Backbone:
C-alpha cells in the first residue's frame, strides 16, 4: 500500500468517524442518549480501522513524505474537523453526566429525607424518634453509564 493510498484511507475513515460523532452530538443535544447504541458497531469498526492506519503510518514515517502536499493538507483538514467534533462531543457528554449526577444526588437526598425525617418535637412535645427501629438503612443502586 502506498503512502498516498494509506493517507487517503485515513482521511476517509477520519471523515466518516467525524460524521458519526456529529450525528451522536445531535442525538445528545436532543436528549435521546438511548439512541446512541445504534451506531456503536460502526463506530467501533471505524476506530479499529483508524488505529490500524495510524499504526501503519507510525511504522513507516518516511512513507508519509512520499505523499503529495495536497494529500497531507486533506488529512490535516479532516483531523482538524474531527478534533472540533470530538471537543463538542466531550462537552455534551460531560454536560449530560453533570445533569445526571445532580439528579441522582437530588433523588438520594429526597429519599433519605422522607425515610429519615429530621429530629425534633412532636405536637405532644415529645422527642421525635429520628430512626424508627423497624426501618433498615437506605440503599440505592446506581448505574452511571451515560
Residues:
Amino acid at each position: 500500500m502506498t503512502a498516498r493510498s494509506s493517507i487517503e484511507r485515513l482521511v476517509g475513515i477520519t471523515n466518516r468517524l467525524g460524521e458519526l460523532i456529529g450525528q451522536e452530538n445531535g442525538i445528545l443535544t436532543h436528549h435521546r442518549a438511548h439512541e446512541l447504541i445504534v451506531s456503536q458497531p460502526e463506530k467501533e469498526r471505524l476506530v479499529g480501522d483508524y488505529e490500524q492506519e495510524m499504526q501503519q503510518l507510525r511504522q513507516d514515517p518516511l512513507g508519509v513524505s512520499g505523499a503529495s502536499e495536497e494529500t497531507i493538507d486533506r488529512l490535516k483538514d479532516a483531523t482538524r474537523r474531527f478534533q472540533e467534533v470530538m471537543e463538542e462531543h466531550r462537552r455534551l457528554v460531560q454536560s449530560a453526566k453533570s445533569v445526571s449526577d445532580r439528579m441522582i444526588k437530588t433523588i438520594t437526598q429526597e429519599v433519605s429525607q422522607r425515610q429519615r425525617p429530621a429530629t425534633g418535637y412532636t405536637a405532644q412535645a415529645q422527642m421525635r424518634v429520628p430512626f424508627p427501629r423497624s426501618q433498615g438503612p437506605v440503599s440505592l443502586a446506581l448505574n452511571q453509564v451515560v
In short: The helical segments are 3-29, 40-59, 61-65, 69-115. Residues 69-115 form the longest helix (47 residues).
